[in-house]
Amino acid sequence: MSLKHIFSPLQLRHKILKNRIVFGAHTTNMAQDGLPGDQHLGYYVERAKGGAAMIVVEPMPVHAAAVLTRGNFRHSSDDVIAPFRRITEACQAEGAVMIQQLYHVGAHGDWDNSWHANWSPSGGPSYHDNDGSHEMTVAEIEETIEGFVQSAIRCQKAGFDGVEVWAAYHCLLDQFWTPFSNQRSDDWGGSLENRTRFSREVMRRIRAVCGEDFIIGLAINDAAEVEVCLSRDEMVEIVALHDAEGLMDYVTVGSGSYFEHQKILPTFQYPENLGADLAERLKQAGLSARVTAESNIRTPENANTLLGAGRSDLVSIVRGQIADPHLVNKTREGRTDDIRGCLCCNQQCWGRRGRDYYISCLINPSVGHEYLWGGDRFTPADNPKSVLVVGGGPAGLEAARVAAERGHRVILAEASAELGGQFRLAGLQPRRAQITDLIDWYGRQLAQLGVEVRYNTYLDADEIAAISADEVVLATGSLPEGTGFQKALPHIATLPGVGRGNVSSTEDVMGRAARLGHRVIVLDEGGHWRGIGTAWHLAEAGHAVTIVTPDAMIARELGRSAADLPARQTLAGLGARFVTEAAIAEWTDAGARCVSLLTGEAFEIAADTLVLATGNRADTALYHDLLALGITPHLIGDASAPRLAAAAIREGRLTGLAL
Ligand SMILES: Cc1cc2nc3c(=O)[nH]c(=O)nc-3n(C[C@H](O)[C@H](O)[C@H](O)COP(=O)(O)O)c2cc1C
Fold first, then answer.
1. Ligand 1 center from residue 291 Cα (angstroms)
2. pLDDT digits (tens, 9 = 90+) for 4-57
3. Using CA atoms, how far apart are residues 559 and 100, in angstroms rounded to an integer?
4. 124 exposed, middle or buried (CB, 10 Å; 0-12, 13-18, 19+)?
5. Strand 591-596 and strand 602-606: pairing?
6. For residue 615, which of 500, 484, 499, 507 has the smallest C-alpha distance?
7. Which of 15, 168, 404, 408 is the most buried (most CB within 10 A)?
8. Is the whole-model pTM more than 0.85?
9. Residue nearest to atom 23 of ligand 1 (CA)
10. Whose CA is nearest to atom 6 of ligand 1?
């Protein structure tokens, strides 16, 4: 397929973008003491080297009330200028146009991070937490506008080519635009002209002080399904008003809002190309500003299709370029098959940002560590060795790939007929085929790198010793306990009745090795995809599913990746029953005898089959056999300690780098 639309250059004010792919704004939360440092430099330079035409660096809070995360940059301080200049110069040297987002979240702040009351047009509630906000006086409005202007001046001094004024997701500017949150009766509320006065003043004054050779962008969102948010017609009218005054050079359109946060970073549960519909409406309005579509566009193929159809002038791919910083160059070189495709899982990007850690990536552990690991690239090993990797799950695949990239001679032995281990089973859950795509990507990479993959090869310690590899990597994974042990009932080592039959693990279910009755209980201790995705698979297949969890809510751990609410909505829609704060005391012929963790009361759930999404145990037998033979293998992934796939891939990468 020709992806030529991506590579047609575009004039943006005084700059020519070399292609149409933007690396849009996102909080990486990497600042140290409020300043950008080596971690930022490594992160952004890697994406500039990878071919992104324009990078929108993570937001600068424009005022004390705008601070949202621990890792935000110092607001209102010239201290940021010199460290940012290092980043802009290094990225511009790679051909990227550099923009910084300026933000103020208004009512939805975090007062005990900012140590400042949240400010908003009319003192509305925060949708970030349970706080209320302070209704801004006219003097405070002026002070905040000045904060935007001073921030833009600092950006210019730091070498940025422009700024992106944030009016998306019902942030402060959008709060002024939206009648729900702007009930003012002065010059800043009421008519459309008054409600847009704040944003227009911000942009007008930035242009006045920063001059003509400075890009000004506007970030907006599409949340038309939320009753109190602006409709698409209203949004087009507002953007057109700004455009008619020549206030911005581009407008970028994301999805979701503070009212439905999960749609700001839509996981694989949502359709692709979410910002494209409103972007198309803006294109049809005939703006002079360029229009960028963003949100779940994910692949170069999607980007090319949107651009080719004229639905946008530019496309922002954020998580796709977190996952593969070289996405653009690989596309240009006709190597789209080599792109490591984002899973839209949010587990290590939003999942870490939401906990106020710096971001990383489940499938690309170099994120946030570029400055330590030489980017997402590899240097040849000084001393190429023979390497035997035992186990073709995510840890073993990454170790084998990286070792081979560095010039080692690698054999990968996999006990089954397929690569991927338990991660492949996750990929068989509904809508999660991006995981099987990733495993196919590993297969292609290993083939290109000349890794010898031995399928159906279960090796014991003597056989491993006989191969005489210089290095042995043990990535044999973990196994379900099978005892029905529950952390909520630690005094019961083995669930009474677990040997009665009709009890399976999630792995058995997804591997189609389980005989299932109609009424299924999924006992989910983890609140993660292992149990939730299996329950979804079963409910979709027509089983009557009851999820029993010790947690106060179903899918608790998916809250980190903004995937819990849509998961619960889907399960509820499929008729699944949720039993929370409960454990199973006995599995009987009739079903499960449960116990409430709140009252201790016993109750029954009639069922034919029990599926255990309880803990796994590392498979270490081979490890100890090898130690006894005097071989010390690199023990990685679940074989070291059962965890999520992110840990396995990270340890695979580190092992491959260290050999
Ligand atoms: C970790 C993370 C942090 C984000 N922070 C911001 C932000 O500070 N400002 C913003 O406008 N968008 C932010 N976003 C939203 C992205 O700009 C983008 O709209 C979203 O990720 C969907 O696009 P994608 O599918 O290409 O990733 C963030 C996204 C992620 C993954």
1. 17
2. 999 999 999 999 999 999 999 999 999 999 999 999 999 999 999 999 999 999
3. 29
4. buried
5. antiparallel
6. 484
7. 168
8. yes
9. 295
10. 26
